[in-house]
Design a protein that fits this description.
- This protein is α/β, with parallel strands linked by helices.
- It is globular and about 60 Å long.
- The protein has helices at 3-16, 21-30, 53-56, 59-74, 92-103, 106-111, 121-133, 210-215, 226-238, 255-258, 292-300, 312-317, 321-329, 335-348, 350-354, 376-379, and strands at residues 19-20, 81-86, 112-117, 140-143, 155-162, 171-176, 179-188, 191-197, 221-224, 239-251, 266-270, 273-275, 285-288, 290-291, 305-311, 357-364.
- The chain has a single domain (32-168, 222-260, 283-378), classed as Rossmann fold (3-Layer(aba) Sandwich), CATH 3.40.50.
- It starts with a helix and ends in a 5-residue tail after the last helix.
- The strands form three sheets. Strands 2, 3, 4, 5, 10, 14, 15 and 16 form an eight-stranded mixed sheet that branches. Strands 1, 6, 7, 8 and 9 form a five-stranded antiparallel sheet that branches.
- The protein has 16 helices and 16 strands.
- The structure holds S-adenosylmethionine (SAM).
- This is SAM-dependent MidA family methyltransferase.
- Keywords: Methyltransferase, Transferase.
- One of its GO terms (biological process) is methylation.
Length: 384
């Protein structure tokens, strides 16, 4: 247990009696200096509690660079082209993407302005150090929040995130014969426990679509993420013309809310293994499956139209992934090449990360008729 975080939670519980799970999650993950993401020792990948796709292999950033390059072309090669990544972790995707762009189309690289919105000061420092090491820091700027980014409503480009939305605080709800309950966090000796009670805000179920709510059997649990609603609206407000490219695990409604069979998709990770949310408070990661239907609905209210919903396999497959696999396969009896190829394939294969991770593409101020047929991520098929 992180004693500072636990102390803050106990203090708040002594006053309020109970906290919503979203309040608990916000504190354990994002306390400014001791929250899970903001501790000095925070890292992702080797030595951390979980891996994300950019950490598996640089091909991930390279394929995304290619997809974004195509978006730039579709938009008529605007200059400057603003590429904003929100929630960039240790900065691996940003540097891989920029280095791929630098080796590619000179016009595209010259047009690119890369911004990171990252809540954590310590992570921003890690990102800046990595960007300097890899020689791309000159292309980049950093912000703590989306609202702080200058040029609101005027930006032309792409807003990108990988595993941002699954790290946003969620409320935990349940459906009963008589309506809904919320699962709160309460004190339990030296630790914390769950307690059911009435909803903290009667509007919470409205963030899940009505058909899904009607379909859920009594006894089913689900999560609601008002923070995701806020973030996607803020992304829409920032753009004049462009795309929002979201990669995350989860699904649309109703699938995302029914697939857990009486659990709700909240997961804790410690040293690459799943754990319980109330264990090792502040020292382990907490995530929740993303409801992509919420991103589509709330995004539409800030002008973002859905262009397509697909999988990481198709995003990568459509953007050069298999050429790299082919290159490695042709190095016969090269054990290093084999090992690298198997590592890469984890990102792509459906039984590995390829279908667990979903990709949502939304657009604003871009003609969307026929657009889905022009974007590599949405046209890829294994049959070809
Ligand atoms: C699960 S990590 C993913 C990191 C990285 N994208 C990757 O794939 O390795 C979530 C990231 O989102 C950041 N984050 C969470 N909420 C945020 C917010 N409201 N604004 C900016 N960054 C946020 C966290 O600090 C962290 O960098």
């Amino acid at each position: 247990m992180n004693h500072v975080v636990a102390g803050v939670l106990r203090g708040r519980l002594a006053e309020a009696g109970k906290l919503t799970f979203a309040e608990f999650m916000e504190t354990v993950l994002y306390h400014p200096t001791e929250g899970y993401y903001n501790r000095p020792e925070m890292t992702i990948g080797e030595g951390g509690d979980f891996y994300t796709s950019p950490m598996v292999h640089p091909i991930f950033g390279a394929c995304i660079a290619r997809q974004i390059h195509q978006m730039w072309v579709v938009m008529g090669r605007p200059t400057p082209f603003f590429l904003l990544e929100m929630g960039a972790g240790v900065g691996t995707l940003a540097v891989d993407l920029l280095q791929t762009a630098e080796r590619g189309d000179a016009g595209f690289f010259a047009a690119l302005e890369y911004a990171i919105v990252e809540q954590g000061a310590q992570l921003r420092e890690q990102q800046q150090a990595r960007a300097r090491e890899r020689g791309v820091a000159g292309k980049m700027t950093w912000y703590e929040t989306l609202d702080e980014v200058p040029g609101q409503g005027e930006r032309v480009g792409v807003i990108l995130s990988n595993e941002l939305f699954d790290a946003l605080p969620v409320h935990r709800l349940g459906k009963t014969e008589d309506g809904f309950v919320e699962y709160y966090t309460v004190a339990d000796g030296d630790g914390f426990a769950e307690q059911a009670g009435p909803l903290s805000d009667p509007r919470l179920p409205e963030w899940v679509d009505a058909k899904t709510l009607a379909q859920l059997p009594a006894g089913e649990r689900f999560t609601v993420c008002p923070a995701a609603d806020e973030v996607i609206r803020a992304m829409g407000r920032l753009l004049a013309h462009g795309f929002v490219l979201t990669i995350d695990y989860g699904d649309r409604s109703p699938e995302v809310h029914v697939q857990h069979k009486r659990a709700d998709g909240v997961r804790a990770y410690y040293k690459q293994k799943q754990a319980q949310p109330y264990e090792r408070v502040g020292l382990q990661d907490l995530t929740a499956d993303v409801d992509f239907s919420l991103l589509v609905q709330s995004g539409a209210e800030s002008g973002l139209q859905e262009v397509g919903f697909t999988t990481q396999m198709k995003l990568l497959g459509g953007n050069g992934f298999l050429h790299k696999v082919q290159e490695l396969r042709s190095k016969r009896f090269d054990l290093m090449a084999d090992a690298e190829m198997y590592r890469m394939l984890n990102l792509f294969l459906p039984q590995s990360l390829g279908e667990v991770f979903k990709v949502l593409i939304q657009a604003k101020g871009v003609e969307i008729d026929g657009l889905a047929e022009r974007l590599h991520a949405l046209t890829f098929s294994l049959e070809e």
